[in-house]
Amino acid sequence: MTPLPPDLFDELCPSSLLPFRFGDKWAALVLRCLEDGPRRYSELRVPLRRVTPKVLTQSLRGLERDGFVARTVRPGPPRSVEYALTPLGRSLLGPLYAACAWAAEHWDELLDARDPA
Which stretches make up the HTH hxlR-type domain (predicted)? Predict the structure, then answer.
């Protein structure tokens, strides 16, 4: 599996402008990181570098609690943990893509609405 690119979520990513959320603030980005298969926490930290470790952990726990992400602990020295989308989590990718496409289409309007001038 190819590594996640560090610039996967540029600061100008339309997902930050979505007026609605899929879970918490970072959940949609975590889901996108997991769409190509299981990832270790350290792999998720690369494109999600703006998220503090504490908040990323909270987001992963919330997604696991809601049934969107499965956490697998691999025994042995060193112990490793992987996160993967469940079938329910994978079913959320379609609506997520639609929301991102909508945000990209309405990018200028969303920015104008947030501009205090």
Answer: 13-111
The DSSP call for residue 34 is H
Tokens coding 114: 């947030």
E strand or H helix that includes residue 20: none
> Which mean pLDDT values do the consecutive 10-residue runs of the chain (117 residues) have?
68 54 81 94 92 94 93 89 96 88 84 77
Q: Which residues pair with 83 in a beta bridge?
A: 39, 71
CATH number of this structure's domain 14-114, picked from the four choices 3.30.70.20, 1.10.10.10, 3.40.640.10, 2.40.30.30: 1.10.10.10
Question: Alpha-carbon Rg of the chain, whole angstroms?
Answer: 15
User: pTM for the full model?
Assistant: 0.76
Q: What are the domain boundaries of the chain?
A: 14-114
